[in-house]
Each structure stands twice: as structure tokens, then as C-alpha cells.
Amino acid sequence: MLTADQRENGAVINEAVHVRPAPALRPYVAWYSGYRQVGLAPGRHRGLPSPYLTLIVTLDDPLVVEAHPDPAQPGATYTTLVGGLHTVPALITHDGRQSGVQLALHPLGARALLGLPAGEIGHLDLCGEEVLGPVAVELHERLRAARTWPARFAALDDVLLRACAGRRNPYPAPELAEAWRLLVACEYTVAAAADTVGWSPRRLSERFGAELGISPKTAAKIARFDRARRRLLAVPGPVAAGPMGGPGLGLADLAVACGYYDQAHLARDFRELAGVSPSQWLGEERRFIQAHGDVLDAV
């Protein structure tokens, strides 16, 4: 919570904290990212497709989503938000200040954590209360009341562990879980993954659609894209077209390292999933970096 002095003095605050949840929650939640920024230039952020669902709990001002992955959803503001897997970016705006905690949720843990399969909220952004009911209200109240990041993360652990307790049938079929693991590791084709788990490609596709809301091919595609854009963001300085010719990583090297056929393949996926070229995305993201680049990713 901002103090009166901070508001009056126009102080610049830029905090980012990235931690893992309690061990019992790690099958369901990959990480927590806390962020508080005040006094920055107004901006817009692309919430990119990723292999995770998103839960955001705001601390001060509501989250402003200008455009959702589903173009039929009108722009809106949220105190808590749950976002499903998606294949086009959301656009988030702020007026120079924003704060909250973003959670990266494993899609296969959605039944345990949210009480429904990830496929039911695919390509959607929903108010947290619509999905989690009173749990979302408690999360918002407790995180706003906490005064430190450790206290906020402890509150998340406490509330989410209680939410998971007693869920019936919280896990999808083991064949589906194994196929997901193989595909997001970008080591198997869809046919090979299906063969490995003993399903036909058609059955695998049907089960992916029902449980996750995306196809096996799309799962592999967004996992490869997510790996590429994280490596791109980690490169210091400008990124050059073509192979590496100096410090850092060239786009051609990045494409090969992440499993693309070539740089053109990487560029096509960026245009489709991010809406811009790799270099344009990187330039925008570095001007609007939030919580180590992970905040709002899957909105």
C-alpha cells in the first residue's frame, strides 16, 4: 500500500519479487511474481501466450485489460483475474502505477486449484470471483492487508492450500499429463507423443481440447515460443538478425536453439502469437519490463 508521503512526493518505486510457492502447491503453481511500480511513464504491455494459466491479484489499482485474446470480450478492469491458455496476446495498460501478484498456474493443476479443467476457460480472462468465488475475495483482502512480500506470499500459500484440500479427482488422466510433458519439452512430435502414451493422435487431440482448450500441436507451439521469448529477453543489449556476430545471441541462433526450422519460422510464430516481430516485442518489453518479464504473461 502506498504511503501518503509517497503519493505526494511522486516517488518512483519499482519492486519485483519472484518466488516459488510452498512445496505442496508446486504441482499446481510454478511461481509467484510480486510487482509494485509507481511513478513510471504510462504504458501498454502484451500479455503473451504461454504454457501457464494466469491468476493475478492486484494490490492498489485494478488491472486494466484493453483487449483480450478473445476479441468478443470487451475491455475491462479487474481486482483479481484468471486467464486461460490463449494463442494471441492481451493488451494491458497502466497510467504509470501498478501493483499485484501474478501466479503461473500449471494447466494440469487447474482442477485442483480452480475446481475446473483448464479447457473451460481457454482463451478467456475472467474475474477471479467467477472462478474461485470467496477464495478470490479472501486472496485480495489478505494480500492488500499484508505489508511485506513474504507476508503476501505466505497468505497465498495458506489460502491456496486450503482451496486445494478436499478436491475430488483433481488430476487428469496420466496419459494426458505425460503427453503434455513431452510436448512442452519440445522433444516429441504430436504423433510420437501419442504413440508413447498409447493413444491415437485423434484421441490425444480430443482429450487435449476437452481438458486444456487447445490442441497438442498448439501446446507444443506456445511452449516453443515461450522458451524463445524468455531467452530473447535474457540477452543483454540489442539482438541481431542472422547468426551471432558479437556479444549476445542472434535471431538465427536463437531459432535453432529453441527448435525452430530457421529464423523465418521464428519470425512467423512471433507475428502470430505476439502480434509483432521479435525485435519490436523486445523493444517494447524492455520499456515496460514487469517483474522479470513474467508479470501478466498469460492474461
From TrEMBL:
SMART domains: HTH_ARAC. Residues 187-284 form the HTH araC/xylS-type domain. Transmembrane segments: none annotated. SUPFAM superfamilies: Homeodomain-like. Keywords: DNA-binding, Transcription, Transcription regulation. It holds the Pfam family DUF6597. This is AraC family transcriptional regulator.
